[in-house]
Amino acid sequence: MSSVKRSLFNLSLPNIMANIATPLLGVVDTYLMGHAEGMYLIGAVAIGGMIFNCLYWSFGFLRMGTSGMTAQAFGASNDKECAAILGRALLCALSIALVILLLQIPIKELSFTMIGNSSPDAIKHAAYYFDIRIWAAPATLCLYAFNGWFLGMQNSWWPMALAIFSNLLNMICSFYFVRWLDMGTEGVALGTVIAQYASVLAVFIILFCRYKKVMSKVSLKTLKNLELLKNFFAVNRDIFIRTLLLIGVVSFFTAYSAQFGEEVLSANSLLVQLAAMMAFAVDGIANGAESLVGKFVGAGDKSSLKEVIILSFIWGMGCGVIFAGCYYFLGEEILSLFTDKNIIVDKGMEFMLWTVLACLINPLCFIWDGIFIGAGKSQGMRNTMLFSVLLIYIPAFFLFKQLGNHGHWLAMSLFMISRGVSMSFLGKDLLKGN
How far, in whole angstroms, is CA 219 from its chain's centroid? Predict the structure, then answer.
């Protein structure tokens, strides 16, 4: 096994395990609500989760931008800049969190206004969920920055350990609050808040024990360097725009599903969970590529850069094929694990082929995301996303709207295909070492 292949494997495996742990939490939440009284509870958690996905994932640049810049500084053996990047990311995370908490009431009102016509019961319980989970904002955003920094430092084991710790604690708390205290959606939200703050505490222990030498090089002068700050915010601005558009599309998909009734909303929520499990697994490989691409760009190693890009696509597409096979042959059995309501399982099977298709086409753009972030090509990510949303997804949505939920899924599939193809066009120079 070559050194590049070994490095990608060692970085990707923990990332895959950590990333799979994230949708597994959503699976547990769906399981708890799916076996509770009231079909609307599944939709309530889906709506609440969608709101926070839109809110928090919009600031995913705190992980992605931090990872790419740290990896390049690591490749250039610049420990002082590695420490400064973390400091800038944390200051940015806490500032954003403060604004979110101060504006939580208008954010809540705007979010539920945009959802539109959904079940009154689902909206009511989603509101309970929102009121509790919003207080995890500082911890959640700081964890984005910490995880990105660890990946940039070529260490995916700590993010894996943190993800497993956080999700296990979250699951335990959610089971206790929902099953024993009968707290419903409030219990699911409270479990998340507790787990997030416990994880932040764990990170500080890790930094003190493992990265004390690097942290000792934090310099206020370097932290305030205007040129470096300008570059930090320029990269993150592009990633922010790209992520906001992506989350907007995914959130609209869930919100618009409510127009087809509770059965379709619940079925689509389950299918999105399945697609998320594949996405997080492939993202594990993309995150490994992100770390190595940044390192090789910083070190000027063009040969290793090309090798890691090719390997990432082979492994990522292979992972998608495995998930597609599982969903195609075992789809009904898998859906039955999430809910005991046959009507939702039957409705999910009606649209299962779209999830199978997603597993085959989505890995292309997921892998390119990691490569572009590591290479610092945030502008390209932004431009391809704008193209795919404005010129592909929106026209496709209106064109196929009369096909109902099938048209809804078709527009989403064309959007993901467009992302993969357009990023391939812009990213071909990286394979040439440019």
Answer: 31
pLDDT at 228 (0 to 100): 67
pLDDT value at position 320? 96
Residues of the chain with pLDDT under 50: none
Question: Cα separation of 388 and 415, whole Å?
Answer: 6
Give the pLDDT of residue 408: 94
Sign, CA dihedral 23-283-314-295, equals negative
Distance CA 50, CA 254 (A): 7
Instruction: State the residue for tokens 């096994």.
Output: 1
Alpha carbon distance 82, 67 (integer Å): 10
> CA dist 232 to 18, 66, 245, Å?
26, 8, 20
The CA-CA-CA angle for residues 297, 299, 301, to 5°, reads: 70
What is the spatial distance between Cα 212 and Cα 360, in angstroms, rounded to a whole number?
A: 43
Model pTM?
A: 0.80
Burial letters 404-423, b for 16+ CB under 10 A, else e: ebebbbbbbbbbbbbbbbbb
**For residue 39, what pLDDT is reported?**
54
pLDDT at site 139? 94
* Annotated domain spans of the chain: 3-431
Q: Which of 247, 222, 220, 242 is nearest to 232 (CA)?
A: 222
**Residue 112: partners with Cβ closer than 8 Å, 6 or more residues away:** 123, 126, 127
